[in-house]
Amino acid sequence: MMNTIHEQQQNRINDSNRRLEDKLKEREDEYTCYKQFYILCGTFNVNNRQPPSTVSLNEWICRAEQIPDIIAVGFQEIDTSGGAYLYDDKKKEDEWEHLLSKTIKHCGNSISSDNKYELVNKVRLMGILLFVYVRSQHVTKCTAISRASVPTGFMNIAGNKGGVGIRFRFYETDICFVNCHFASGDGQTQRRNDDYQTIESRMAFTDGPTYSFKDYIWYTPASSDLHSTANSGQTTTHRWWENIVNFKNSFNDTKLYREKFICLYFRWKISNHDIIFWFGDMNYRISQANEQVRKAITELSMIPLQETDQLKCEIKLDRVFKNYQEHTIDFLPTYKFDPGTDVYDTSEKLRTPSWTDRILFKVKRKKVRGNLNDQKKIDDEIDVVKPLDYFCAKSVKFSDHRPVSSLFLATIKYQCDEKRSNEIREQLIREFDREENDAIPTIDVHPRPPEIKFDHIKYLDKSSYKIKIKNVGECQVNCIILPSSQFSAGAIKQQPFQLRSDEYYFNCLGFIPAIPSLIQVKEEQTVDITFSVKPEYASLFSNKKQIKEILILHVENGADTFITLDVTLDMGPFGLALDKFPVTLFNSRTNQYVYDVKLSLNSDNGGSGKQSDLKELKNDPPALYLALIDCLKDRELDLIDIFSDDVQDNLDLIPLRNEIYNHNYKFDKFDNSELLMMLIHLLQCLPEPLVSTQIQKNIFNAGTSYYSGGTHHPATTNSSQYSSTGNVNQNSLPSSNSSFTVSNVSGPIPNEMRNAVSILIEQLEQKQRNLFFRLLLLFQKIWLKQQDMEMNDSSQACRAIQNCIESLSLALLHDEATPQQRHLFIRACLEDDKPNNNIPRSSSMTMSK
Fold it and tell me: Where is the sequence biased in composition, kind Polar residues (predicted)?
């Protein structure tokens, strides 16, 4: 209980400290000397091509008139080969680093031999690479350097798409550089928006502590010994500002105090920085007909094209990049060219030319007023960041993109007058002392009371409810939404939040923007609360037709708001165990399965007309599974096509799902990808994997180290950690709770795994074994032979094969085994040329029917 009280007190202190920091920032012109520096940002999608030996990047990077103090360069698609998914090869990264360093060195020396640069940091996520260089004379003023990456590719875990970032403190200004590669495709605007939201909300820089004179306001124990009291759990009678003064006075030398103080590992988010530069291949297109765009380019009529530029439109609608700015575009679209030419795409796809490669920036304060460049105080406000140019390097033609760069003049907080800042701080502390009792976080919630009611939710449905939260108090508000069980006497029980076994519903809730959420004074935020059933919880919901729960919108140090959640569910066959389906019927006269009993008994509609013709096959799979398999088995199935990114991104399973709910099992009108993915969804929704958990434990954990795949952490529904987002896209592949580890699609399969498959099959129950072999026949039909693998070695084909392996293995095993075990298992099944001879037959029919 003492610890809880101490934590609550610490939270109140931290909130006051943050408020003091905000107020101090508002007056930083009174104690700050500014200096202007040049910053160059560049982005280039190299289309998986090595730099030609004769290529020069000078046009892209060099500026004859100005010497950049900071150079940040982002690359995309430096390596999109299948190997990039399997292992970390630094060869291409090193090649680009060498060429970039050589170019920067040449550009600097062309103006003066004293202009040397040092690499501050670099970060890579598969094909996405970011370098940040700083002129040598400023390197010592770069502190709190950190990097981060966020994947947004396949299932938000593959790194073919995503973002990388580097942040550091430059003198007294916190700067962040983000390089990104968003989803491709003309009609994928929303996916690109989602990629931005994912990177913006998830990227956090936590590699190390931060240092600055101003950071001492975060310190709370009244002692100079950071380690002896920070975690002691003892309450203190000192007021928070007394702690600050006592700690500061413990150092005789102010400079020593500034250097020694360590902020307790503040998690820097992108939005926390003073200046943000965000660039990359954002893939936003021009929403006009291809012919119109090409004609406008020929006529050099750029303004009409920019009016339909997707990124500009989305920013205008406040959907992405809120408060970001972009310099005027005065160059032709940078994508897509025939490599080595100035001709836009003439391939079969005939891509619409677009400005996919962009550079944006954002500042906390747009303008400042103060002492500039060691001169006297200036009266006029100056821009914190002023774009000087926005440039496309036309001479660099080896890729299908053109590199883009932009030069900025940034006003940096160069020096601080500590005496004056302390005077302002003490003045603010006195003001806060008077306001302390009145500064209680207060929100207004609409609608009031918030009542979330979702009726008749089916599997794959995604329903949403919007809550508008407005900060009507005098201090910022920290909000979080959690089940009522997580609170005790107004306090959060523990962190991270452990959900009870009966609170699995909460993991099916999604919150956009992600929570916890910080709302500034007088600001308003709309939270979109979504509900969609995840496959791993489908069986639990099949037994629970209604959810009635209480959620709490918790305001730190303020009044909480209760939110009622009322959901009625109809899971249909999803989540239903195989033995809970109606008994499978077989028409002995027509030698066919019966998918519609009424039709079978109706002689006028081609049925048998005799009840005696119908046989119950208790050991055969349910009719729904048979109908899907039978519809697929006679078709030509293309693995690369079914599991390609384009097909998966545009998949709509709702019409097929509706037919299943209506017990209409005539699936001839549906595409192969829809039928196969629906079958995979059904399998992953089973309460127990088709290959049961116990069998997997007996086989995979039997001590064979060759295919054990490392430490195994099975997923359970007994306890799950709180997740701020729980969205399920009905078009996406079923996902695993474990991290996505890609196996080699063409390496050897150990004999131990092949033997394990044989042993496993013998342990299956009759109905499960019957379904397993039918699925195996179907899956083997779509699997590529070795020669086909070698012919399809492109990055798109490799991604499709990996998607296939992960999807099929999850369908049969769920995520009880490790990813490596699952992948080897499914390959051992698919690449075995013998199982067809061992497939059991039903007691009353053949599988060919």
Answer: 1-14, 711-726
